[in-house]
Structures are given as structure tokens and as C-alpha cells.
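Dear colleague,

Thank you for sharing your sequence with our group. We've completed the structure prediction you requested, and as agreed, I am returning the results in plain text so they can be pasted directly into your records. Please verify that the sequence below matches your submission; if there's any discrepancy, let me know and we will rerun it promptly.
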Amino acid sequence: MCGLLFLVTLIWPDWIEAVFGVDPDQRSGALEWAIVAVALCATLTFSLLARSEYRGARALSTR
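Please find the predicted C-alpha cells below.
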């Protein structure tokens, strides 16, 4: 979900204004870039956590 939000915001930066009908950053784009940064960090973090869980489960199943 975070990865999808990241891609949507990169491709269509004005989606917040279109979907919600508000302009929280008065067209500066700061909110959109903040969403991109947070979504990218969350995507990377969750991917690394999932990889760790997968490796742990795989190690337990081979014993």
C-alpha cells in the first residue's frame, strides 16, 4: 500500500486536491513531497521487515 501511494504521488502529485477537494499546502507541493518521502521510507522499512520474517521462517522450516 505504501509503495502504491509512493507511485501515485510521484505520477499524479495533485491527487490530494482532486480526491479530497482541498489544497492543504496552497499549491506549494510540500505535502506531496512529504507523502512521497514518508511512503518511500515506509515501503523500504516494511520490505526489510518482511524479508527478515521470511528468512527467519525459512530457517525454522529447514531444521
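Summary note from our side: The mean pLDDT is 87.

Kind regards,
the structure core
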